[in-house]
């Protein structure tokens, strides 16, 4: 795996290597987007259209890549977005991500449908973990999970609100992808053609949704989440004494309403373009939402980020902190934990270089770029 990691020089490299190693079903589950994926293309085009203005003759020999997140100093202005069933990319992927979070003191978003128990992840992450919560069904199980996260020591809860119904992702549907994981003839053939992945998964055991061992709460990925409303949010706010973030916001009026409802931060996101093909590019909405909520309100960003320059663009557009998602899974699939750390170094170097080119020594300085 060390030799494979040496070939990762960008997020695109990690994706290319992962595509070779992963079964088609797993790769398309991680990589796919809603509809015919024009939304993902729109999001990427919007990021590419943004520019960074070079500045010259400024002493940028000492650059600080840290950022403040809810009173904690993160060593990078980017963390790990919540992603379901990460262990499909490689056995132990959740734990690899948690170790990375601990090393750099960055938030690790722990998905409701993680394949490692939420208690283990926060322990390995040395407390640097946020629990991401889906409302599902009548909400009874949802609030049980929130209580469980509280008992485990989570200080930040992320309520994802952009999945009232699971988006239609044709690449997933064509392969018959399901959670919990199931294997039919088509999947068996797919796995047989990717023996390296299959043998390591066989040795480790089939990935499971590890947070659903509670009595009376079995998670159904296709179950409607459409009953969640502002009263649901109010109930969650009342029971959760820590930081409450709402993820999946693209409308400025919604962001203001969340702020007024006592939410501690908003995460601008299109769910990686996996939900609504016709949604606007999140990076275009970010400055509008920043203007609406004011300069000091915590504003986070994910969706479509592929490089350190993308991070700087998002920070320039109004984000306080950003999150990477599928690129990190691809790095793990490509080269295991060594690949993850190699890509993390690449992203850090890209950001540091972009800061130097734009005359910036500190990310709190918004005057350049």
Give your account of this protein's structure.
By secondary structure, the chain is of the alpha/beta class. The chain has one domain (2-57, 68-357): Aldolase class I (TIM Barrel). The protein is 44% helix and 11% strand. The protein contains 15 helices and ten strands. The protein has helices spanning 2-5, 11-21, 24-31, 38-49, 93-104, 118-124, 140-152, 170-175, 185-192, 195-204, 230-239, 252-260, 282-293, 308-316, 326-357; strands at 67-69, 72-74, 78-80, 108-110, 129-134, 156-160, 243-249, 265-268, 299-301, 321-324. Strands 3-10-9-8-7-6-5-4 form an eight-stranded parallel beta sheet. It has a two-stranded antiparallel sheet with strand order 1-2. β5 (129-134), α7 (140-152) and β6 (156-160) form a beta-alpha-beta unit. α2 runs antiparallel to α15 (326-357). The radius of gyration is 20 Å and the shape is globular. InterPro entries: Aldolase_TIM (IPR013785), Alpha-hydoxy_acid_DH_FMN (IPR012133), FMN-dep_DH (IPR000262), FMN_HAD (IPR037396). Its cofactor is FMN. This is Alpha-hydroxy-acid oxidizing protein. Belongs to the FMN-dependent alpha-hydroxy acid dehydrogenase family. Keywords: Flavoprotein, FMN, Oxidoreductase.
Main attributes?
369 residues, alpha/beta, TIM Barrel, 8-stranded parallel β-sheet, 10 strands, Alpha-hydoxy_acid_DH_FMN, FMN-dep_DH
């Amino acid at each position: 795996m060390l030799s494979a990691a040496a070939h990762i020089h960008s997020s695109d490299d990690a994706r290319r290597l992962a595509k070779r190693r992963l079964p088609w079903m797993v790769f398309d589950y991680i990589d796919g987007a809603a509809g015919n994926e024009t939304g993902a293309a729109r999001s990427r085009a919007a990021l590419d259209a943004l520019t960074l203005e070079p500045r010259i003759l400024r002493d940028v020999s000492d650059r600080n890549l840290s950022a403040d997140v809810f009173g904690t100093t993160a060593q990078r202005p980017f963390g790990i977005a919540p992603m379901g069933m990460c262990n499909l990319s490689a056995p132990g992927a959740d734990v690899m991500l948690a170790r990375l979070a601990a090393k750099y003191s960055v938030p690790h978003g722990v998905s409701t449908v993680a394949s490692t128990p939420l208690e283990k992840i926060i322990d390995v992450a040395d407390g640097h973990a946020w629990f991401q919560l889906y409302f599902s069904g009548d909400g009874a199980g949802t609030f049980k999970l929130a209580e469980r996260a509280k008992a485990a020591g989570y200080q930040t809860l992320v309520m994802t609100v952009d999945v009232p119904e699971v988006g239609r992702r044709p690449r997933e549907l064509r392969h018959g992808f399901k959670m919990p994981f199931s294997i039919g003839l088509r999947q068996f053939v797919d796995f047989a053609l990717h023996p390296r992945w299959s043998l390591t998964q066989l040795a480790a055991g089939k990935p499971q949704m590890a947070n659903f061992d509670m009595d009376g709460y079995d998670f159904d990925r296709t179950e409607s989440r459409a009953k969640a409303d502002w009263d649901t949010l109010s109930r969650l706010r009342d029971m959760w004494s820590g930081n409450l973030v709402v993820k999946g916001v693209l409308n400025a009026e919604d962001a203001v309403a969340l702020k007024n409802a006592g939410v501690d931060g908003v995460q601008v996101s299109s769910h990686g373009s996996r939900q609504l093909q016709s949604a606007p590019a999140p990076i275009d909405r970010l400055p509008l939402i920043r203007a609406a909520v004011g300069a000091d309100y915590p504003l986070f960003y994910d969706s479509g980020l592929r490089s350190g320059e993308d991070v700087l663009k998002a920070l320039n557009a109004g984000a306080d902190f950003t999150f990477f998602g599928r690129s990190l899974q691809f790095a793990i699939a490509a080269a295991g934990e060594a690949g993850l750390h190699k890509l993390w170094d690449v992203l850090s170097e890209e950001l540091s270089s972009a800061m130097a080119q734009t005359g910036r020594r500190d990310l709190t300085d918004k005057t350049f770029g």
